[in-house]
Amino acid sequence: MVKAIVLISTEVGREDETLEELRRIDAVKRAYFVYGVYDIVAVVEGASLDDIRSIVINKIRRMSSVRSTVTMVVVREVEKE
Hints:
four-stranded antiparallel β-sheet; 26% helix; globular; Alpha-Beta Plaits; alpha+beta
């Protein structure tokens, strides 16, 4: 399983709409509305890097409310006990 963090900038005032659309994508495991340079941070999981690429390009970036994305592939995850 491959995991990625996707930083999303939306059109002004369309953050809630974008969160609802992200909620309908199975590969989006979590999404957060945040303050700062980006509007939404999403955690995406797929079977491969190609799956992640496809989800970001064909689903997330095609949303009319999304202005831009930055994708960071998780290399290693450390969980607290």
